[in-house]
Structure formats: C-alpha cells, structure tokens
Amino acid sequence: MIDQKALPIEETYVICRNYGDVITAIKDLTIRGAPAIGIAAAMGIALGMLHQSATSREKFNNHFYRMCDEFAQARPTAVNLFWAIERMKKCFKNVVTSDVNDAKRVLVDEAIRIGDEDIAINRQMGINGRSLVTSGDTILTHCNAGALATGGYGTALGVVRAAHEEGKELHVFVDETRPVLQGARLTAWEMTKENIPATLITDSMAGFLMKQGKINLVIVGADRIAANGDAANKIGTYSLAVLAKEHCVPFYIAAPLSTIDMALHSGDEIPIEERDTTEVSQFHGVRTAPEGMAVYNPAFDVTPHRYITAIITEAGIARPPYDESIRQLFEGKRKS
Ligand code: MRU
Predict the structure, then answer these.
(1) Which residues sit opposite 301 in a β-bridge?
(2) pTM exceeds 0.85 for this model
(3) Exactly one of 203, 223, 230, 301 is catalytic; which is it?
(4) What radius of gyration do the chain's Cα atoms show?
C-alpha cells in the first residue's frame, strides 16, 4: 500500500507481510479513510488466513475469528471496517467443505471483490453527485475523501473528479485539516496529480471565504452515518456545516451505503476515536505547546442531519427527511 504518512514528500510503498502489519498500518494511518480501512482489513484477514498452517477446520476457524476481533480493535469510528469484517465472516461461514484451502481461496476472492466493488461504487457516486455541481463552482472540501481514502477514485473527490471529467470548470478549496493535515498532504496531492485547479487554506479560513462569497458548495466524505442522517467525519466538519448553513451554502456528504450504520438511530451513538495527544502538541515531531499542557484530540465530530443538504450515495441522492430517504435507498438496492 502507498504510505500515506510519507505523502506528499515521498511516494513510497509499504509491504505488509502478515496481518499484524496491516493492523499496524491502519492504526498508524499508513492507510486511512473509511472505505480504504475496510478494504485493508478484508485484505489483511485474507492474508492472515493464507498464512495459517492449521489443517483442521476447527483450529482454522478459531484463528479466523480471533483475527477478526483484532482487526475490529484497530480504529473505532469508520463503520466500513466493521462492515468489511462482517462480509468476510459471512463468506467464511458459507464455506461448507472442511478443506481449509477452499476457505483460503474464498476469502482472498471476497477481499479482492470488496476492493473492486468499492471503485465501481465510487464511480457511480461520482455520476450521481456531479448533477449537483455547476460549471464555475468553487467547492470546499475537508480531510481526504479521495482515491487514497478508498479503493480508488474517491467519494467526495469522486464527485469532484466526475464533474471535472464532464468538462465542468471547477475550483476546489482544500482545508488543510488539522491536526494530521490530510487536506494539505493528501487532497492537495490528488488535486495536483489530476490537474484540478485547487487552493489550500487553513481550516479557520473557511468561514471568511464563505462570507466573501467564494464558496458555492461544500462536499465532504463520512466515516459513519446514522439512520437519521447524522454524519461523523474528520474533526472540523461540524464547524464547516454550521458555517455553510449560516452562509446559505449547500453542504453535501458523499459516502457509500457501507458507511451508513442502520443500527444507530442517531449520531450521538457513534463512537469517536481519540488519538495521541502529540498529534496536537507537536508538529512533525517538534513540540509546539508548553510541556505538560493538557490536550484533547478527538479525531472526528458528528454533523447533525439538519445541516446536511443531501447525502450522495451509489444508490442515489438522499434528502431530508433522512430516516425515510436512507431507508428507501437500501430498499432500492436490495430489489435491484
Ligand atoms: O482519520 P482519517 O484520515 O481516517 O479520517 C478520514 C476521514 O475523515 C474521511 O473524510 C472519511 O473517512 C471519508 S473517506 C472517503
């Protein structure tokens, strides 16, 4: 996998030789972004089982479920991780033969399928979302919801890419995204590679740009969306949504159905990851705050559904009331 920690300074690849390497890569943000975390976990589970020397199905099963539990501990907020683990479990259960090699093959195939499907889903999301973008628009985005954060193409940036590919003239304002700088390091890198005109700003500049009339719409990704439309995304997203409402700027979320957690009624139930305090108190390993300073570092926040203009998915665009529109998207997908 490309080492997202090293971008944009270096384009280096990390080789995961065992499933533990994949868990470490998820934890330390070598790979990050909700769909990419799910795909990595599926691939990691397949890798771990390929290395399993147990010949009895019972031992093989025990190892599989233990490993799934370990992956589930890697990061708490992005539901795609748990969604991918559940898919791997379901497919594992369906292997009825006692031959462990059959199970290995099925798991590898399923992991590859999860990755391939994600790219197709992103492209469909792009097609669905580009109708919301008009030529000449200036779009604000936060964090990185691009090719790096997914199997490829991107969710929020997939919509931007699709509109750009359609020939629409766009300008993207990229929030740097404190404290880990996914915007400055990763989204800016993707926009540069794609030749999509973009300008980097610090997170605190967004309100001023909206007041100046420089932003037509906001599009961000999500890590988990509750059944009522409340959406968890990178810390700072909530502030953007409130600012967007104040300035009458449409605020869109682009996310696959696998990011929607129908088991949660509202965003209050979404677990929010707290990360190491040094992400805030240091910059590139150099301390920027007084020693001993208390630090609070939630990695995500939850945007209440009333601030969200629409949710763009591969199955269509959901609009308020979300309880109803999200349910209809799932029903439509089940029927198709
Ligand atoms: O901590 P990260 O970098 O994994 O957070 C990622 C985000 O918040 C993204 O916006 C989200 O996962 C959507 S990615 C398509």
Answers:
(1) 233
(2) yes
(3) 223
(4) 20
d(CA 71, ligand 1 centre) in Å: 18
CA of 233 to the centre of ligand 1 (A): 6
With a CB cutoff of 8 Å and minimum separation 6, the contacts of 335 are: none
- CA of 143, closest atom in ligand 1: 10
Rounded to whole angstroms, the Cα distance separating 201 from 256 reads 27
Give pLDDT tens digits for 184-231: 999 999 999 999 999 999 999 999 999 999 999 999 999 999 999 999
Dig out the tokens for 249 from the structure. Answer: 């700027």
Cα 311 to ligand 1 centroid, rounded to whole Å:
16
Residue 265 burial (CB count, 10 A): 13
Q: Is 28 a catalytic residue?
A: no
What CA dihedral angle connects 289, 175, 230 and 280, to 10 degrees? -10
| Sign of torsion over alpha carbons 156, 159, 162, 164 | negative
